[in-house]
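Supplementary Note 2. Why include the ligand at all?

Several targets in our set were suspected to adopt different conformations when bound, so apo predictions alone were not considered sufficient. For every target with a known small-molecule partner we therefore ran a joint prediction. The input for S-adenosylmethionine is given below.
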Amino acid sequence: MHSDDVNPTDATVNSTADAAAETEVSAAIAGVGAIPATPAAHAVPPAANRRMVRAQGQSNGVHKQREVSAPVPAASGGAARDGAHREGAMRFDETGKVSLDHIYTQPDPHAYFSTLRRLDYVIPQLARPFFSQLIEERRARLRRPPTVLDVGCSYGVNAALLRCGLTMDDMYDRYGERDGEAPDRAVLLARDRELVQARQSRATPRFVGLDSSRPAVSYARAAGFLDDAVCADLEERDPTEAERTVLAGADFVVSTGCIGYVTERTIDRIASASERSDRPWMAHFVLRMFSFDPFTEVLDALGYDTVHVEGVFPQRRFASAQEQQQVLDTLAAVGVDPRGLESDGWLYARLHVSRPRHAPARRTARAGHPADSLIGRPG
Ligand SMILES: C[S@@+](CC[C@H](N)C(=O)[O-])C[C@H]1O[C@@H](n2cnc3c(N)ncnc32)[C@H](O)[C@@H]1O
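The joint prediction is reproduced in token form.
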């Protein structure tokens, strides 16, 4: 990082714990080739996340959190501990996962975070140091703050974590009930805007989002988490010219919890919005039940190499025993061994990082920069 590039988006980077985490992240990103979780890795349960952490570690291939305040006992059958069952009959999508569509389209993030808190949804937190690391690499090469496009940005979740240094626990507290009452949207927005302004500096990356939920995108824009956004379902159609312009501005495309809702069609349309010489890097956290092969193929045709980062990442608890069984069935159908992972009550994701193969020299700001060692080649 340049000395003048103090990045408010990752205020944790100088702490001892985070220095260690950064090293681990670098090592993980540098790993080439998919390494399936070993049986030994299965023995390590994901840390409970009632207190989110500022650093993460890896043990036997399972990326987990450190500094967890108190372990949360797994609910029987691996189901969520409360809440989800009280919501009445659950609906499931065709992959076997519980349908959470109703919480993606509320005017503010209260229902989203209240529901996901009960499921210990943790993946944006675990993704943060990886995204931060790659943002810093892009910054070093471009010699300017990069533009980050979050696919399936929802209420601006990854942008909030990255630009404001928030944790998922912060998010759960921010949007939780006050004295038993749902918070007021205007109050939430005013507080978010204040936070974004307080954390903004010349070094802050630009954050743009893509999501099919207009209420979520509107909130993220109004709060200031996102500098620009595309509200569209690019599974269904090509981007308009205006949308293409926003997408083409991306230097780095990220996602958590979105692949599966979107397929390689959306990713193809995003990458194709840019000239071949100017395509963005990508980092997607993807549930193990979804094969990344079709994405790798599409991206390969567009000139990308894809690295499958070693290890697995806990995403959330199953919402019910029924959801768990359905997902286990899906995993069996696609030949993924769930033992010690999904069979123990959590959904797990993998990280896939894709970068253009033949980037022109002008994109390589400083040949021989230490960041090269993370990715093995200029890009
Ligand atoms: C599980 S949420 C993940 C949100 C956020 N990335 C996170 O990790 O907290 C999935 C998001 O994908 C969005 N989504 C679903 N289908 C989509 C599509 N076809 N195009 C864009 N976004 C979509 C939903 O609206 C929702 O915001």
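Residues 104, 123-124, 152, 154, 157-158, 210-213, 216, 233, 235, 256-258, 261-262, 266 surround S-adenosylmethionine (CB under 6 Å). The first helix runs from residue 16 to 30. Comparable summaries for the other entries are listed in the accompanying table.
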